[in-house]
Amino acid sequence: xxxxxxxxxxxxxxxxxxxxxxxxxxxxxxxxxxxxxxxxxxxxxxxxxxxxxxxxxxxxxxxxxxxxxxxxxxxxxxxxxxxxxxxxxxxxxxxxxxxxxxxxxxxxxxxxxxxxxxxxxxxxxxxxxxxxxxxxxxxxxxxxxxxxxxxxxxxxxxxxxxxxxxxxxxxxxxxxxxxxxxxxxxxxxxxxxxxxxxxxxxxxxxxxxxxxxxxxxxxxxxxxxxxxxxxxxxxxxxxxxxxxxxxxxxxxxxxxxxxxxxxxxxxxxxxxxxxxxxxxxxxxxxxxxxxxxxxxxxxxxxxxxxxxxxxxxxxxxxxxxxxxxxxxxxxxxxxxxxxxxxxxxxxxxxxxxxxxxxxxxxxxxxxxxxxxxxxxxxxxxxxxxxxxxx
Length: 390
Prior knowledge:
This protein is α+β, with helices and mostly antiparallel strands. It has 14 helices and 21 strands. Strand 16 and strand 17 form a beta hairpin.
């Protein structure tokens, strides 16, 4: 059977490799790092969020402008399918109170071991420390521990990730290679990114603490969720979904009392005794945490206490953190560069999958779901292409 090469050993690449092997093809996975799925393992340290237990139409809303592009792919491997896939690998799952789905083991390592065992049984070869460096004619070129190698593949799937967390393998180094081959790319930008904030000294005691039960607004986007105060700024799931708006320069504000309506809050402010300090009043009357009170004073220097400052406190910041610190990136191979099977129009037989495609999604299981779905789609498309060209 045909030789298929998958470049990149993350979730999308491993999924593609499994589909090609199931179709009867010899499959080689080339991974630049010393081991595969390093970003998946890192994500699983705090609990591997596999997917979000939502109906397809709700799930797709989180992919923003790319939703219609991803619709057929995610429809064939949606939240229910992701859960069935994990169970088939011997990993029972559970759904948390927010709808996020996790393996009962929580970590990624048991699932990855089972997955790699299945791929090995299917005959998939995995070569680590193999870095793709481009083409020599139609042959793929690699730098390997044994020196330079060339492989003539019948089909290739590129699944090399985006441009964040370079130490784990997603360094975006493939972009110049594809640009040189005439592939239309969108510039990389951070997604699911923390914010840089130049804190004053009085915020230092709160470094590492979370701001909970707040509402964040950037432009037209509203998010409920916590964020952690760090020495560099603010980070956390409550802010990550705002990254697209913040990239466009939308102002950011925070509602410190999202469960209190404006009229009730105004009554409480009117009842405040003149001798009571703002901090004392916010603690006793509004039951705000020390972190919320500190943030209020940090961002509201010189302004009086009001409904507006409590429910729409402007949050000054120095922009998004550097792209390599972001959880994911937007940018990469544009939809127009690919056919419906995710094959590059400029290089027949070469397919793309995962985060190297130009889409983004917030955290919450959406990233991994789309990586698995695009990897599966690309693998099946490559197998179908081989069948047609045999």
